Predict the structure.
Amino acid sequence: MKTTVSEKGQVTIPKPLRDRLGIRPGHVLDFQEERGRLVATKATPQDPLQSVYGILKLGRSTDDLIKALRGTADAT
């Protein structure tokens, strides 16, 4: 399958390849050069919560926090 590079450097990925590889509108592709070839891979989407996971420093264990939230222990 062949495609032509536009004036802006854009290419159209042939539909059979998009379908086979599950490339949909909005997917992000990473491009690399490997031994003189252009290689595109689907970028792994990052979970938005992953970037903030663990940023809270509460100064107590999770078990103590849950007990305090449930009212089953002293909320110190």
